[in-house]
Each structure stands twice: as structure tokens, then as C-alpha cells.
Amino acid sequence: MLDAPEENLASEAEWTTREPAPAGMLQRARAAEDVGGGGYFHPEDTVDEVYRPRRESMRHRLQMGVPKSVAGRIIVGAGALLVLGVVAGAVLGVRSFLLHDARFVVATSSEIQIAGNDHLTREQVLSVFGSDLERNIFKVPLAERRADLERLPWVAHATVMRLLPNRIRVSVTERTPVAFVRQGTQIGLVDAEGVLLDMPERSAGDPHYSFPVLTGLSADDPLSARAARMDVYRKFMADLDSSGEKLTQSLSEVDVSNPEDVKALVASGNTDILVHFGDENFLTRYKLFQQNLPTWKTLYPKLASVDTRYEHQMVLEMQAGTSVPVTGGGAAASSPTTPVASTATAAAAPAKVAAPAKVAAKPEVKAKGKPAAKVVSKHESSKQKMAAELAAARKATPPHTKPIGAQKP
């Protein structure tokens, strides 16, 4: 039995009309008890304190921003249009000032600054901007002028900038020549990408132009073909200079007309010797050529070319109209184009190049104190081939038998 009537208890009707507590209220109530030291917690106080409705205030602020009356809305729209008109008028005024004021006009060529031109003259660069003189600086098409500059053969890259009020700054990056190039009777320059360049007027005696003459390039060839041959040339030059001896300084001319056989004229005294280097092992083949050259020049004073492409031997060729000297009682070769196959004194690097067809070796001819040399003819007659076969058969036949085809005494 209760000691006192439960007057403070809420009736069932009151509980049904009360709104449900917001989510998380129980946890916040417990937190409040921990802070307040265990005091009584009333949910209605927390709800009134924490969850105050704000929808009405937000709606009120939105209503305050937009007038409710039609006249108010017309006034606000007119004000907005007025502001936009003022801004547009200011922009148009500034634009008209920049495009028509005399202070922004490129009056003379002295207003064009040029940097980076070493081979190009100032007149060549200014020729691109001929139509821009006495023009407003903002009307100069910078991208178009940059493209025009990069069409000049000597220009690799270019930048064009405006410098207010009326100056234009041009910066060019020129191409770097890597060789002279011969086209008919004219000598020009070429860069690493195969772009043909005109010879500058002040290039005579320039120490930067200490490279060989390159042949095998033509202006009629597409740029891609010239670029591929220049890759072969750069590989060849880099391989020869990889030892640090600057061997390329002995080259007077390089021929890249056949990328599979790079040919070069190598200076030797007062004459140049044409050397076939193939397409690989350039440094190794040059070293072998250099080691054997003194001996060859002693044996063959009229040496014209050396082919280093064959494995373990080099084919020598004399100058036109010169017979091949032979010692040891043999007769000299009468053909002016007769090459000589000489065994190199050092083992050559393997080269996957087959020996030329129809090349037969005659008996070795030895010079005293010199390495053996073989006289080779490119065009052997059938009679000479038969004689060589008989000689080989005699060597293979035992002494007590007659060699095949031997005549009776």
C-alpha cells in the first residue's frame, strides 16, 4: 500500500499526447547526470535547450531576401540589370582603350627584342613580323608568329611574348649542326634530325665547325629518311670517340647513303683512304685498320680503299690504273680494280657479312718480314678456276699416283 497518493504521476492521456523524444536523448541525459553529479534529469528541459526549431527562422530569412510584392521584385531586377550594364560598359571601355590607344602600338622594329639568335640574323627574324609594325600589340597573333618562326630552318623552338605597353620579346633556340653536307657543288650543314641548313656567312674559320663532310643525304628525301641516316651517323661517330682518342678528327668525309655500310675517308698523310665499316663494331674495325695501315702502305703505296666488313680479313683495293705489286717471283696483277685480301694481325670482331661471291684466292704471296697477303680477283675466268682446281687436286693426290688431268712428260 502506498503511503501517499501518486499526485505527480502523469495520466495515460498525457503520455499519449506527448511527442517522442529525439534520437540520442537517453545518452545525453546520462551524460548530463554524470556532469551534474546525479541530479534529476527532466527530458523537457533538454529538449527545449538543445532542440529548438529553426525552420521558421530560415524561412523568415529567405522571405526577407526576395520582396513579396511585384513592385519590389521589379526594382530588384532593375538594379541587377543596372549593375550588369555598368560592368559590361566598363569592360568595353577598357577593351576599347587597350585596342585603340596609341601607347599600345608597335611603332618600329626597335620595339621587337630578339634573343638566342646566333646563326640567324636580326633581319631574318624581323621578316616574320613585317606585317605587325604599326599594329596594336594586342592584335599581334603570338601563336601564329611562333609557328612562322619555327618554319625557319635554323629555328628549333621559339617563344613570343608581349611586354606592355608596346614591346614584343622573341626568344629562339637554334639547331645545332653536326656535319657539313654536300649536295652537288654546294656545301651546307645538317643537324642531328636531318634538317638541312644554309651555311652562315660568318662560318668561315669557325672552330665549332670541325666535323666531316656528310654525303648520302638529299633535300628530295623525306625528313624521316634523313633522320634515320643521321641516327646511323651519330652512332658511328659516338662509337669512334668512345675511347676518348677523338678518332673522328681523322675523318674527312662520311657516306651514309647505305645505312648497312658506313664508308669514311680517313686521312693518311697526303692522301685519304676509303674505309668500309659496315653497320656495327665501328671502333674495333677502325683499330684493326689503324694497326695494319703502316704495313699496307709499305706493300701497297697506291692503296685506295679498305673493306673491314669481312671476318678475319680485310679487302684492299688500289688506285685506278695501278697494278698490285707482288714479290717472290710472281707477276703483278694487271687489273686496276684487283683487290687484295689481307689477313689482319689481330682477330676481328665477328661480322655477320658473307664473303663476296665469285672470289677465289690465288697462291699466297709473301713479303719478307711482312704478313702474308692473298691476291683476290673479283672476276675470275673459267680457265683460272680450272687451274686452281687442278692445283688443289695435285696437293690431295698421293705421290705414287698421277694427279687428275696431268699430262704425260
Low-confidence stretches: 327-337, 346-387, 393-409
Q: Per CATH, what is the topology of the largest domain?
A: Rossmann fold
- The CATH class of the largest domain is Alpha Beta
Summed up, the domain count is 2
State the main characteristics.
alpha+beta, disordered C terminus, 17 strands, 409 residues, Rossmann fold, Ubiquitin-like (UB roll), single chain, three-stranded mixed β-sheet
Written description of the protein model:
With 409 residues, the chain is of the alpha+beta class. It has 2 domains: 103-174, Roll (Ubiquitin-like (UB roll)); 177-396, Cell division protein FtsQ/DivIB (Rossmann fold, 3-Layer(aba) Sandwich). It is built from 10 helices and 17 strands. The chain has a 12-stranded mixed beta sheet with strand order 8-7-6-9-10-11-12-13-14-15-17-16, with helices on one face. A 3-stranded mixed beta sheet has the order 2-5-4. Strand 11 and strand 12 (271-276) form a beta hairpin. The N and C termini lie far apart (164 Å). Residues 327-337, 346-387 and 393-409 have low confidence and may be disordered.
